[in-house]
Amino acid sequence: MKSDRLLSILLLLQTRGQVPARELAERLEVSPRTVYRDVEALSAAGVPVYAERGRHGGIALLPGFRTDVTGMTTDEARALFVLAAQGAHTALGLDDALGSALRKVMAALPAPHRPAAELTGRRILVDPDRWLGGPRPAADLDALQTAVFTDLRLRIRYRHSGETRLRTYTVDPYGLVAKAGTWYLVADRRGRPQLFRADRVASAVVTDAPVRRRPGVELSEVWQQLRRQVEDRPTDVRVTARIRRDRLDLAVRILGGALTGPPRTGDRDGPGPGHGNGIGGGEADGVGAREAGDHDEQWAVIELAFPVLRAVRQLLQFGDALEVLAPPEARRVLAEAAAGITALYATDP
């Protein structure tokens, strides 16, 4: 609506000062001609706004002009009180600041919007942690924050996954990212992007040297690049398994990162071995025969991908509710692991 657009222009000019008409047009998804018409409308309404033509021109307000109007809609007010990741504010030491900011926003809201905003804060809770995540190592973000906000290089002592010794790196931070309750430092090391888990940083020292980021590169761009590298890692082991349907939801939650597609749950799709489904070849014939009355529709087929063969051992947590059908070497790994567990518990300690 035009009224919302006029208010957006006003607030942008108050925040940014002089802004090129083309940039305003891009932000508001209108043409520069529309922006100039809106500027004329603001001027006619008594707002001291003016336009400067030329290469370095733009739209601006007269110095010293401010407005107290928030112009918030009910939905905008509610959105401010649905704050994802309270734990993120705690880790950054911003809990008190957050509470103070929300109280100020509440006081500034138009009276008709306050009940909806207050009710949203009481009725909506966002917990960023995954189920069954267990306790997480504490991450000291103080030095990391300092480097991020002061644009200084950072020297860290870091422990990589699976290693005990610490490595020392000098990095150029872009920022911090909280993903599923885990904090990451996104930085360049020797001009190349790298991801560091904050809870594996043993120590961090902010140097006096200015940061050396790649020109024009922002945190969001580097994060997406690193995220794709993690998610698109090649997987060497493709596994087909069947799982009882009453355990399917649990398996999807636990194995979500390994699933390569949605489960196949069509009636009588023949997921079990030895039933002519072609999965696993002849080696699977006669393995895991079902008891009488154990129908195909009680099972679902899932496809999984693992980086190494040994990783299939995590499927043992589902007991006899999950059976790997292929490849044969994955079945052998599980059989050997199960035999080792049986031997371990065969005698009374």
Write the layout of secondary structure elements.
Elements: H1 2-16, H2 21-28, H3 32-44, E1 49-52, E2 58-61, H4 74-80, H5 86-91, H6 95-108, H7 114-123, H8 142-150, E3 152-158, E4 167-179, E5 182-189, E6 192-197, E7 201-210, H9 219-231, E8 237-244, H10 248-255, E9 299-306, E10 322-326, H11 328-344
Antiparallel strand pairs: 1-2, 3-4, 3-7, 4-5, 5-6, 8-9, 8-10
Helix pairs in contact: 1-3, 2-3, 4-7
Structure description:
With 349 residues, this protein is of the alpha+beta class. It has 4 domains: 60 residues, Arc Repressor Mutant, subunit A, CATH 1.10.10; 50 residues, no CATH class; 90 residues, Roll (SH3 type barrels), CATH 2.30.30; 108 residues, no CATH class. The protein contains 11 helices and 10 strands. The strands form 3 sheets. Strands 6-5-4-3-7 form a 5-stranded antiparallel beta sheet, with helices on both faces. β3 and β4 form a beta hairpin. The longest helix has 17 residues. It is elongated. The termini are far apart.
Q: What key phrases describe this protein's structure?
A:
WYL_dom, transcription regulation, single chain, WH-like_DNA-bd_sf, 5-stranded antiparallel beta sheet, WH_DNA-bd_sf, alpha+beta, 349 residues, 3-stranded antiparallel beta sheet, 34% helix, WYL domain-containing protein
